[in-house]
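Course assignment 3, question 2. Fill in each field.
Student: A.L.
Task: Predict the tertiary structure for the chain below.
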Amino acid sequence: MEDLDCAPGALEKLITMKTAECEGIEVVGALLDRACAARVEVVEPIPNGHNLKALVDAGRYGRKTVVCGAPNCRAGVVTAYVPIGKKVIQSVESDGMLASAAELDISRDHSGILELDTQVGAPLAGCVPDSIIEIDNKSITHRPDLWGHLGMAREVAAILTHRLKDPIRLDLLPEGPPAVKIRIEDLNLCARYSALVFENVTVKPSPLWLQYRLTAIGLNPINNIVDMTNYIMAELAQPMHAFDADLLHGDTIFIRPAKAGERFRALNGEEYTLDPANLVIADAAGAIALGGVIGGLDSAIGEKTTRVVLESANFQASSVRKTSAALKLRTDASMRFEKAQDPANTVRGLARAIELLQELSPGIRLVGGAADQKRDIPAPPPIELPLEWLARKLGRAIEPAEVRALLERLQFGVSEPRRGVFSVTVPSWRATKDIAIKDDLVEEVGRMVGYDSITPQAPLVPAAVPPQNPERQFQHDVRNLFVDQGFTEVYNYSFLSEDSIRAFGFDPADHVRVTNPIASDQALLRTSLLPGIWKNITENLKHRDAFRVFEIGLEIHKRGNGLPHEAPHLVAAIYERHGDGAAGLFEIKRAAECLMSGARACPAEARPFEHPARAADVLWKGEKAGRLFELHPSLVEAGRAAILDLDLHAVQRLAAGEKKYTPIRRYPSSAFDLSVIAGMREQAGYLEAAIASFAGPLLESIQFLRQYTGPPLEEGRKSVSFRLTVGSPERTLSSEEVGEIRGRIIEGMRERGYELRV
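Answer field:
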């Protein structure tokens, strides 16, 4: 691309607004603009330390005395000098420093100072300070071309209206019969495989400029041949691999599915057992690479390599992804192939490699022509783009000449077969699961013209109030009520494990089984919300002494035919580490009464997961609406947990009954307290009902006050106190009338065998 006159920060913003989200800018090689080659002339040890005092000729900076601790600092070596100022080290004034590759950001090597083969005073060729714009890779998963720097340069050129320089010279590709044969068994798995053979190869460290560029983007320099393949992968988004030709068996490279149980040693030193779902590159002896994922160790480039087979291929995206996931092996190559790369890129990668290798390995020679096998991939049909439709979709008018210019800058082909309609040809690097319909072109025009240039406007479509959903509104009200009572709402999966089901005595056979569970412990659909709440209690009691939680969700029950039955339920829990649990039961009963005024708890036989003496049915308006109980002590590690389980379908149905208006009483009421002596197991609700039956029609309300045990009461006895309010809608009751009601209650209770404290 032409020279850019754009600051990194401004360019980052433009890329974010028009192409892909940027995460920041990292400056690398900050010291390189001052670094130069320097020769160490004299080295003297510094007493009582490992450092050396070096006199260096720093060219344009003159002669300097530098303290250096590198093991390879010696007289005669040419290294990198950086004038960072003076500092006294071990009583010696050090003027500047001799730098390692890591200190200059050229590589991660910090074992010693750089050793150069260049003129003293010269800058480090090809190494200058740079700014790395970090792209969020999640924003380019649909753009395989943007996984290479050339693709991003194409975008920047379009944004800034610059001309893009293509670095590829296809005329470098040799003609003639290839020196290696290629056989692809399934062209759907490998759409194209291209290869070249080189001889007279010299394997050595890469020049500093190449090491610097690879390190800047997070790749480790290895040697000139491997680094060349990684450089092209980063530049063109075309992963490549180099084989040592002398380590291959036969003259043919096979691209085939792996054999069942086939063993493969990868470059990472690991050995993998393959199956036919894995695509391999093989020679006559066996697998030498995993297609699109990683190369093999047995054919790797080494110091003794003199002949190279260079592959550049295109693999099916889903096949690479499945192999990578199955083997838990994700590489820079697999990440690019998973995005569906352009098959035309294989020979472009080889042409670029020829040019680079002439510099990186002087004297290298091509052997034969390029081997290239591929399946016919028809060009995608042109896309018709009506300009009137484009303007309506975008929400603003754009001149046809501007639309054409925007698309052509992105290297789309544009013609106008009829007035007001463009015929757009998609370039090959955008045709792999990216641009396919006219709506894709709307996005291209919109992002390039700038979405901020489009005035926001609400869609002009008819709007209608959606029909009421009584069940949703009811559950919303229930949710708010329990939040107001201090409960925290939780959400649990609808999937359960067999262990959690058996903990409650449920039969797994009664549950709907998931065909493809997301995890082995989530294979059954829940028939109760209780296992989920139990898990919430178990996890939270590790951190808290008391808490309240609730969940509203669906129980899913099997039916003989058809779909399962879904029943909405509420399960609430109050946990307390200290105490006997009675307070929690009364409090959760009170919460139930806030939802269902007048609800009663009727003692019932305990189920296996319920406390044997603390289980009751919740009755409301003569029907069972749910269950109130304490979790069995075996299910709670410490403390007590009171549970309320309500059938919300039944509660909603009962709540929908007709409501009657009762006017405010015009006359004052009278209240008095009564305490009934009863057995410890006597239910307060039963006593309340008995008292109410004797009070008569003038009873306005009866309220439980307290319960007392201890002296002077006998062992096993308790005193239960109630407050009764009586009154008449027609007059103020006299003290005699109130006394008569009170006496009638006392007499009736005594006849039933109860003693009253009056």
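Instructor remarks: The mean pLDDT is 93. The longest helix spans residues 735-751.
Grade: pending
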